[in-house]
Automatic annotation (TrEMBL):
Source domain of life: Bacteria
Molecular-function annotations in GO: DNA-binding transcription factor activity; transcription cis-regulatory region binding
HTH tetR-type domain ranges (all copies): 13-73
Keyword Mitochondrion (UniProt): no
Organism: Amycolatopsis pretoriensis
Stored PANTHER family: HTH-TYPE TRANSCRIPTIONAL REGULATOR RUTR, TETR-FAMILY TRANSCRIPTIONAL REGULATOR
Protein's name in the database: DNA-binding transcriptional regulator, AcrR family
């Protein structure tokens, strides 16, 4: 049985979870610019050293927490049909963007990305990239099943899928009616040229 070397920091999962929850709550309440390591540590009930054992800086901490939160909510479900896969995928996007904390965090992150090109690049690579990879698998699977044209513009298709939900919830701040996703799936199927 392997022993932890003397003097090595042991990162306890329950402490990491408390810190993650604290980061999300602080982001929702204070915003990116006003969030402080001190406030996160206090809310999590830990010393600042617990944060610095995990991340080198505030920016790194926020990026890690938001990435984990966002990427873990991208679903890759194989329902056997493009319609079913789209419904599951779009439901996951809606749940992610409508999350009670994340819906308050996202607009501030978008504004920060506009001011900070490095953060914008990191967000695109660490969140956008993995989430788009999941969508691409779904679309390629539909192409293989013959449900979508072989020459489908995958980049444009992925934009078309997520954009309406983002626009409705984040930009317009309009509700998603009970039948919204079903209507959106039918619209997306036509837009994608589903066979």
């Amino acid at each position: 049985m392997a022993r932890t070397p003397t003097g090595a920091a042991v990162l306890q999962p329950e402490v990491t979870q408390a810190i993650t929850d604290a980061v999300l709550h602080e982001l929702a309440e204070q915003g990116y610019g006003r969030l402080s390591m001190e406030a996160v540590a206090k809310r999590a009930g830990v010393g600042k050293s617990a944060l610095y054992r995990r991340w080198k800086s505030k920016d790194e901490m926020i990026a890690a927490v938001v990435t984990e939160f966002s990427v873990s909510r991208a679903v890759l479900e194989d329902t056997g049909s493009l319609r079913g896969d789209l419904r599951a995928t779009l439901q996951a996007v809606l749940d992610w963007l409508a999350h009670p904390l994340f819906s308050r965090i996202l607009p501030d992150l978008v504004a920060e990305a506009a001011r900070n090109p490095e953060q914008a690049r990191a967000t695109s690579e660490n969140i956008g990239g993995p989430r788009r990879e999941v969508a691409e698998v779904m679309l390629r699977r539909a192409i293989t099943r013959g449900e979508l044209p072989a020459d489908l513009d995958l980049e444009l298709a992925m934009d078309v899928l997520a954009a309406p939900i983002y626009w409705r919830l984040v930009v317009r701040q309009a509700p998603a009616e009970p039948d919204y996703l079903d209507r959106l799936v039918e619209f997306a199927l036509r837009a994608l040229g589903a066979v």
